[in-house]
C-alpha cells in the first residue's frame, strides 16, 4: 500500500502540531504505524491522500451513523453556509433542534447546545453541582467523558475511592472531588455513596461504556444507579455522547428504559459538525444562566451551520427508524465473525468491540480457563487484552482495506452506509486477520 503522501504530511505535521494530530488517538501510536491523512470520504468509504480506500468502521468516532457526506446533509449545509457562518445571536434553527432533541428524548425538557462532548459533560457536571449544592461526583474507571480537568481522573492505587489526575496539568484539588467506582460493580458504588453520603452531586455514567472497548451494563446495573442516586439525593447523568441517537432514536434511555436526570449528547446530534448538547429536567436546567446561577457560555454554541447538520441528521433518523434494525443486524454479523475466531465480543446495538484476551496465561503458556467463560465487564477485564495482538489485527485489516479504531479501547461503529456486501467482505477480513494470531 503506497502511503508516501501521508508519511510526508505526518512528518511535517509533527513539526507544527503536537504528535502531528489534533486528537491523540488519531496518531495510531497504539498500533505502531503512522496515520493516514484523509483526502475525502463518501458513504462507508474513506480515501486517503495516496488514494487508498478503506471501509470505515470508526465513522469519526461515532457521528457517521448515516455514512460520510450524506447528500441531504451536505446540501442543507451548503445552502445555510451561504447565509453566513456565525452570528453569535439566536436563530430559529436552534429552537428547532432543541425541539427535535426533546421529541426524541422526552426526558430532555430543556437543552443547551455547546460545541463538543467535553463541553457538554463539563457543563452538566457544573449544573449538577449548582443544583444540589454538593461538590463530589462519581465516575467509573475506564470511562471517558472528555478532557475537562475534573473528569481527567482515574482510580487511585489502593483506595479506589481516591481519584488521581489522569493527565499532567490537572491539579490534585480537581481530582479530589471526583470519586472513581468500578463499572458494573454495585458494591463499589454503594460504598462510595455511603462514605460520602450527602456530598455526591451526581453519578456520571456512560450507560453503555464505549471507551474501555464496549462494555454493556450488567442486568440491573443502570436501574441500581437510578435507585441509589434517588435515595441519596444525587443526580444521575447519562453521558450519551456515543450512545445518543445511536442505540435508538431516544438513545440509551429508550434502549434500556432507565431514565436519568441529565443527559449529554455529541457526535450524531451535530451530524458530524462541532455541536453537542446537555439537557434534562426543566427544574435542573433552569439553574443555567441567564435563567439561573450556573454560568456556561460559548461563542459558537448553537452555530447555525452545525445546527443545520444536526437537524438534517435527526430528521433522517426520525423519518427512517428502520435504520436501527439494519445497523444492529449488520453489527451482529460482525460479532459472529469475531466469535467464530474465539474472541470475546461485547455488542450493544451497532456498537461492538472484540477483545484480544490472551488465550495463554503468562509465559508458562498454560491455557487459561475456557475462554468462553471469560467476560469483559469492566476496565480491569479490558486491560487484560493482548495489545500487540490487537495491533497486528488492526494492521492486517488495514492492509485488507478495512479501517477499524486504532485502539483496543475504542468501539467499532456500523453505519447505514455499510451494505450487507461490505459487511460480508469485512467478515472475511476478520477471519483472515484474526486467524493468523496465536492468542486463541
Ligand atoms: P468530544 O469532546 O471529543 O466531542 O467528546 C468527549 C466525549 C464525551 N463522552 C464520551 C462518552 C466520549 O466518548 C467522548 C469522546 N469520544 C472519543 C472517542 N472515544 C473521541 C475521539 C477522540 O478523543 O479523538
Give the CA-CA distance, first to last residue. Answer: 28 Å
Main β-sheet: number of strands, strand sense, barrel status? 7 strands, mixed
Shape: globular
The quaternary structure here is single chain
Number of strands: 18
What proportion strand?
Answer: 15-25%
Write a concise synopsis of the structure shown.
With 440 residues, the chain is of the alpha/beta class. The chain has helices spanning 4-16, 71-81, 92-104, 117-132, 172-176, 186-195, 221-232, 251-256, 282-285, 304-319, 322-340, 379-382, 387-399, 420-435, and strands at residues 38-42, 45-48, 53-56, 110-114, 136-140, 153-155, 163-165, 178-181, 200-205, 235-239, 262-265, 276-280, 344-348, 351-355, 360-361, 366-367, 402-403, 412-413. 36% of the residues lie in helices and 16% in strands.
Written overview of the protein:
- The structure is a single chain.
- This protein is of the alpha/beta class.
- It has 14 helices and 18 strands.
- The chain has helices spanning 4-16, 71-81, 92-104, 117-132, 172-176, 186-195, 221-232, 251-256, 282-285, 304-319, 322-340, 379-382, 387-399, 420-435; strands spanning 38-42, 45-48, 53-56, 110-114, 136-140, 153-155, 163-165, 178-181, 200-205, 235-239, 262-265, 276-280, 344-348, 351-355, 360-361, 366-367, 402-403, 412-413.
- The strands form five sheets. A seven-stranded mixed beta sheet has the order 4-12-11-10-9-5-8, sandwiched between helices. It has a four-stranded mixed beta sheet with strand order 1-2-3-17.
- Strand 1 and strand 2 form a beta hairpin.
- Helix 2 (71-81) runs antiparallel to helix 10 (304-319), helix 3 runs parallel beside helix 10 and helix 6 (186-195) packs parallel to helix 7.
- 49% of the residues are buried.
- The model is unreliable at 360-366 and 436-440 (pLDDT under 50).
- Ligand KE4 binds next to helix 4.
- The site of ligand KE4 has 18 residues, from helix 4.
Amino acid at each position: 500500500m503506497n502511503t508516501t503522501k501521508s508519511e510526508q504530511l505526518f512528518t511535517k505535521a509533527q513539526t507544527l502540531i503536537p504528535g502531528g494530530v489534533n486528537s491523540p488517538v488519531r496518531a495510531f501510536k497504539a498500533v505502531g504505524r503512522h496515520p493516514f491523512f484523509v483526502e475525502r470520504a463518501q458513504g462507508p468509504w474513506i480515501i486517503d491522500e495516496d488514494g487508498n480506500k478503506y471501509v470505515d468502521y470508526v465513522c469519526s468516532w461515532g457521528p457517521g451513523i448515516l455514512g460520510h457526506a450524506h447528500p441531504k446533509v451536505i446540501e442543507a449545509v451548503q445552502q445555510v453556509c451561504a447565509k453566513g457562518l456565525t452570528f453569535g445571536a439566536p436563530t430559529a434553527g436552534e429552537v428547532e433542534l432543541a425541539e427535535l432533541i426533546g421529541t426524541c428524548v422526552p426526558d430532555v425538557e430543556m437543552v443547551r447546545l455547546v460545541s463538543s462532548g467535553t463541553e457538554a459533560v463539563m457543563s452538566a457536571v457544573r449544573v449538577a453541582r449548582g443544583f444540589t449544592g454538593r461538590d463530589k461526583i462519581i465516575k467509573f474507571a475506564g470511562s471517558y467523558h472528555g478532557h475537562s480537568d475534573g473528569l481527567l481522573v482515574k482510580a487511585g492505587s489502593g483506595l479506589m475511592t481516591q481519584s488521581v489526575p489522569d493527565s499532567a496539568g490537572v491539579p490534585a484539588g480537581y481530582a479530589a472531588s471526583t470519586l472513581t467506582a468500578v463499572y458494573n460493580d454495585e458494591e463499589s458504588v454503594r460504598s462510595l455513596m455511603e462514605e460520602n453520603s450527602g456530598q455526591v452531586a451526581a453519578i456520571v455514567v456512560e450507560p453503555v461504556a464505549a471507551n474501555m472497548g464496549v462494555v454493556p451494563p450488567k442486568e440491573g446495573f443502570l436501574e441500581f444507579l437510578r435507585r441509589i442516586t434517588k435515595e441519596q439525593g444525587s443526580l444521575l447523568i447519562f453521558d450519551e455522547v456515543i450512545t445518543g441517537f445511536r442505540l435508538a432514536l431516544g438513545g440509551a434511555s429508550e434502549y434500556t428504559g432507565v431514565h436519568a436526570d441529565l443527559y449529554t449528547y455529541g457526535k450524531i446530534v451535530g451530524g458530524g459538525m462541532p455541536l453537542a448538547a446537555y439537557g434534562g429536567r426543566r427544574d435542573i436546567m433552569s439553574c443555567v444562566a441567564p435563567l439561573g446561577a450556573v454560568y456556561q457560555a460559548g461563542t459558537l454554541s448553537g452555530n447555525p451551520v452545525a445546527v443545520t447538520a444536526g437537524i438534517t441528521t435527526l430528521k433522517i433518523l426520525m423519518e427512517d427508524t428502520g435504520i436501527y434494525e439494519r445497523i444492529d443486524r449488520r453489527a451482529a454479523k460482525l460479532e459472529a465473525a469475531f466469535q467464530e475466531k474465539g474472541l470475546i465480543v461485547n455488542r450493544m446495538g451497532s456498537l461492538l468491540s472484540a477483545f484480544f484476551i490472551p488465550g495463554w496465561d503468562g509465559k508458562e503458556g498454560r491455557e487459561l480457563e475456557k475462554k468462553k467463560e471469560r467476560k469483559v465487564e469492566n476496565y480491569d477485564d479490558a486491560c487484560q487484552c493482548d495489545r500487540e495482538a490487537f495491533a497486528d489485527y488492526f494492521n492486517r485489516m488495514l492492509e485488507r482495506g478495512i479501517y477499524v479504531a486504532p485502539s483496543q479501547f475504542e468501539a467499532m461503529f456500523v453505519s447505514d452506509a455499510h451494505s450487507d456486501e461490505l459487511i460480508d467482505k469485512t467478515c472475511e477480513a476478520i477471519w483472515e486477520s484474526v486467524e493468523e494470531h496465536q492468542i486463541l
